Amino acid sequence: MIKKFASYYRPHLKLFLLDMFCALIVAVCDLFYPIIAKNIINDYVPNQNLRLLLIWSLALLGIYCLKAVLNFIIQYWGHIVGVRIQADMRRDMFEKLQRLPFSFFDETKTGTIMSRIINDLQEVSELSHHGPEDLFLSMIMLVGSFIMLAKINIQLTCIVFGVLPFIVFFAIKMRTHMHTTFRKTREKVAEVNANVETSIAGIRVTRAYTSDEHEIDKFDDVNMQYQTARANAYKVMATFNSGMSLLMDILYLIVLLFGGLFFFNGLIDTGEFAAYLLYINMFLKPIQRLVAIYEQIQDGMTGFIRFQEIMNQPEELEDPEAIDVEELKGNIEFHHVSFHYQGADDEEHKIIKDLSLKIDQGKTVALVGPSGGGKTTICHLIPRFYGVDDGHITIDGLDITKMTRLSLRKNIGMVAQDVFLFNGSIRENIAYGNLDASDEEIIEAAKKANIHDYIMSLDEGYETNVGERGIKLSGGQKQRISIARVFLKNPSILILDEATSALDNATEMQIQQALEKLSEGRTSLIVAHRLSTIKHADEIIVLTKEGIEERGTHEELLNKQGIYASLYQYQFKE
Predict the structure, then answer these.
(1) pTM reported for the whole predicted model
(2) What is the mean pLDDT of residues 154-165?
(3) Which of 500, 496, 491 is nearest to 521 (CA)?
(4) Which is more confidently placed, 286 or 495?
């Protein structure tokens, strides 16, 4: 893990080395002060050597000015290193998220992911700057002050260093407790974020059902869990800090006691005793610094571990021999396909069992039937959002696992019931179908989707902001923008998953005209509950949990007087 963490310094190595060099010079400057103080006390003042007193005072002033410049570089450019490393990690995590399978997002809350990509990496950023710098400075100061202490009086130094094993033992003993508690705190922060994200996204449902108090109670519960976890972390931190502080005070007391005894016995003079006390302060300073940053180290390393958990998630598997396909014709075939969602391994919970299905190029096939029959799942299997358990799916005779996902998905256009629009302009949302499209092509796609006239009636036209998830638009307007996207993409395979079920009848008729125009010349798979929208499909397939129960044209299925006829008669009984 340390090796992986260190690898993020490589692109910023020059700046990092500048930071470390400045830290080294600052540490060396600090080591000079007690030597100069000893000479002033023992020599220049008793001997009234004013010239050397002024010279070395000016030298100290120069050292302090140099330290001020170096500290500015450390504080500014050191933090810049941390920010750049944080940006690199955030970029890597975001890129990783783009490659993770849909099953990961099925199991992981959005707020939890947000917590890892923002909160955790903020702590990693602070650690990446302060961690190496403080550790480096501390080692320089510890080694340097030890050498200077030994030069002044080796016996007293040996006594002082006899206390160090107790300090090290205490720090190691506390490390495990701190790691556990700080990890728990990070998990609770993620839960708070997930709760807030869900509550804000569903604020209209909350208000509609007057469930404000319920949401507040839920938040209070998770917030209290975070408070408890943080309190436990601070309890361990307080034990660590107070214990380390006590050991530091005992160390300083030992120096005063034994230094005084050595002075009484003539083993150390006044200047050496003063210098020794100054060096002891320098010796204690890095230990105190390590104590002070221990919480930051724990936070940062916990954040990096959580970052690594995301980075170590298995990505969507790609066959190393997979090829980039060009334009597919659209002959789709399912060969004895079985599938279950993650967490439901037994045969009973298979959504699809031994399904064989053929959709010819350019044909429109509709899937109908009760919920749970696997209609939407079939739509998700064709673009390989999920991998099948058994069997295989082919397009134009080629197994889709032998195609790269990118080239496969370029040939598929999807319009779902729940349209997702990005917070941006109408132009940007339509252009998602083809990011290289010209303005003329975007406008043409909008005209085909019957949304152009509405867009032009807006004050800002195509530059109108749709709001988060398209909240400023009606359901029909959002649906037509999603249809315009597909027109712009111009795929050979079209999947319509309940594309009009959430709309009123008038809007549905308008959308249906756009969808019929969109389906022309393409292989189309339509999932629908409203049977009026699929009467003209080339084939209608009735799916249940048992598999394909009926198939045929609208008229053929009505004549069979089976499941489809029952559904149709129920919908139109009035």
Answers:
(1) 0.69
(2) 77
(3) 491
(4) 495
**Higher local confidence (pLDDT), 514 or 387:** 387
Spatial neighbors of 284 by CB under 8 A, at least 6 apart, are: 248, 251, 252
Cα separation values, 166 from 141, 236, 239, 408, Å: 20, 18, 15, 64
The neighbouring-strand residues paired with 526 are 366, 496
Amino acid in position 404:
T
Residue 394 has pLDDT above 90, yes or no: yes
Pairing of strands 412-416, 493-497: parallel
Q: Are strands 493-497 and 523-527 parallel, antiparallel or unpaired?
A: parallel
SS3 content of the chain, % helix, strand, coil (to 5): 65, 10, 25
Q: Is 22 exposed, middle or buried (0-12, 13-18, 19+ CB in 10 A)?
A: buried
| Residues 6+ away with beta carbon under 8 Å from 17 | none
Average pLDDT for residues 46-53, to the nearest whole number? 79
146 vs 463: which has the higher pLDDT: 463
Average pLDDT over residues 25-41: 75
Task: Decide the pairing of beta strands 364-368 and 390-395.
Answer: unpaired
Give percent of the chain with pLDDT exceeding 90. 3
SS3 state at 561: coil
User: Which of 246, 306, 311 lies closest to 95, judged by CA?
Assistant: 311
Q: Which amino acid is at 330?
A: G
Residues with Cβ within 8 Å of 533's Cβ and at least 6 positions away in sequence, in order, are 500, 508, 512, 526
The token pair at 158 is 């040996």
